[in-house]
Amino acid sequence: MEAAAASLSGSNIFHRNYRFSRSIIRSRYIASGSRYFSNSDLNTQNHSVFKGPNLSNVQIQKRNLRLQTNCALGVCTFPENVMESHHSHVVEEKLGVLLLNLGGPETLNDVQPFLYNLFADPDIIRLPRLLRFLQRPLAKLISVLRAPKSKEGYAAIGGGSPLRKITDEQADALRMALEAKNVRANVYVGMRYWFPFTEEAIEQIKRDRITKLVVLPLYPQFSISTTGSSIRVLQHIFKGDAYLSRLPVSVILSWYQRQGYINSMADLIEKELGKFAKPEEVMIFFSAHGVPVSYVEEAGDPYKDQMEECIYLIMQELKARGIGNDHTLAYQSRVGPVQWLKPYTDEVLVEIGQKGVKSLLAVPISFVSEHIETLEEIDMEYKHLALESGIKNWGRVPALGCNSLFISDLADAVVEALPLAKALSASTENDEEAEYDPLRYLVKMFFGSILAFLLLLTPRVLLAFRNSLF
Ligand SMILES: C=CC1=C(C)c2cc3[nH]c(cc4nc(cc5[nH]c(cc1n2)c(C)c5CCC(=O)O)C(CCC(=O)O)=C4C)c(C)c3C=C
Ligand SMILES: [Fe+2]
Question: 133 FRET partner, CA 20 to 30 A, in 109, 123, 438, 447?
């Protein structure tokens, strides 16, 4: 199955071929306390997702000039397909907007099953094809091993993730912002790893008989591990469903370059800088969520390019306001024994502290809600580390949340995406889709668990995991 991603700007700045490999989807049931829930698992092959451009600074600057005039929006519409009309009467249009997000555990008991869902995602732990059968046993093992550390983090921020509440508030604010622009829409929230799951949101969309859908992931920059993973789930839900495959859909792949978003980030930074005694001496420290290097270098994840471009645009906006502070970008939240994008936030904080930087403003940049990585990792761990390393004045820019300029810009993005909505191919071919076979599943789980344990007991893996997981 293939979907094309093209810009809305009229020029083809972001035209890319976005190929999702054929995947297998199976329903599974996982115990969560006394409750059982179903979730989708994707077994993907050939991650040839998004060949991201490798841009030099000059190229980025040239592209930015075009972006500023075009205000481009990366939009993916499902492949060209004329929606068949079986009725001669005109159907009243009912617009839906689906906000995609990661989801987070609401209680400490949710932490381990939430982590299981996350690590069972082949877009998060990307195993070679031959080792795919280890995905779930490994997910089980890693989630059990990591849960105590994660629980500590969630306990420190009040016993659970605020993500669901904030995303619901953003959905409400977006509905109202659309209404203010004379666009009536139902806004749904679909989470990738916790409630309300994307599957539940889609069920509601079907019940509401939505006739046009805009999909808006709440990640400004595209990554295989975030937007890519959520869209893959959507594609599987849509495939084989008669109603959904005829529903005109437009997917906004990334929106970090939108002027409204850039301006609202610049507003927040300017406001926080104003709280320092000597604002011009403050280093602006962008801390982005990391991804493993292999995502970018092997799978073509455009995340790093988009992140650099995003920061360039914010700094340009600040410069235009007469703010010329030093700035830097580092990557946080690495997990596991592989190489992640560098430089690492914790290392850079120590370095710049030792070099004599005295005032620092941390700017979380990958995400638009407060969550564990802002409230615990940045506000507690990194702040502590920075102060220990010689930084005297610490500040942190809040996440955008329901900032009205930001939400209004998202509403504009939705309006701009509407005319591009197209239906998914009605194809329901299942050639590579395996039927769910409980016996096969149990056998795989059994042997996979044994192999996963053996692998984990090798000294190299043990050492790497001890250092990075717990
Ligand atoms: C193991 C690989 C991970 C990748 C790759 C990854 C990418 C990635 N994640 C976010 C945003 C969020 N991550 C959150 C939680 C979270 N993420 C990972 C791992 C990877 N993330 C773990 C293990 C966890 C659980 C928390 C923990 O144990 O540290 C969350 C939810 C936070 C909450 O409040 O619940 C968000 C949001 C981005 C943007 C990203 C790639 C660009
Ligand atoms: Fe994450």
Answer: 109
